[in-house]
Amino acid sequence: MRCLDCAKSVPFWGEACPYCGTDKARAQALRMISIMSPLFGAAVGTYLSGLEGFFLGGTIGGAVCVAIEGSVTELFRRKST
Fold first, then answer.
1. What is the pLDDT of residues 5-15, one digit of tens each?
2. More confident residue, 77 or 22
3. What is the mean pLDDT of the chain?
4. Which of 63, 1, 75 is nearest to 31 (CA)?
């Protein structure tokens, strides 16, 4: 996980970045939403339409995960320049 302020790689656990001291709550929340979106999508899809919904919901959730991670990565690229 990267710190949203200094863009250095930091461990997930803990309350503040060890390098700049920024609160990591936003970065942790983004990471958890990113990780949980394929699982949530698969669960909702299964509930709504069975096995096909499982795969479709998981795929859509995976796309959300990739979009979140890509947005955060782009944020770091822009911050470093």
1. 888 888 988 88
2. 22
3. 89
4. 1
pLDDT score at 61 = 96
Confidence (pLDDT) at 77: 74
Q: Specify the residue for token string 């929340």.
A: 29
Q: Is 58 exposed, middle or buried (0-12, 13-18, 19+ CB in 10 A)?
A: buried
Q: What are phi and psi of 50, to 5 degrees?
A: 75, -145
Residue pair 10/18 in contact (Cβ under 8 Å)? The answer is: yes
Contact 69, 45 (CB under 8 A): no
Residue type, 22: T
**Nearest to residue 38, comparing CAs of 54, 56, 55, 62?**
62
SS (H, E, C) 30-47: HHHHHHHHHHHHHHHHHH
Q: Which residues pair with 16 in a beta bridge?
A: 23
Claim: this prediction has a pTM higher than 0.90: no
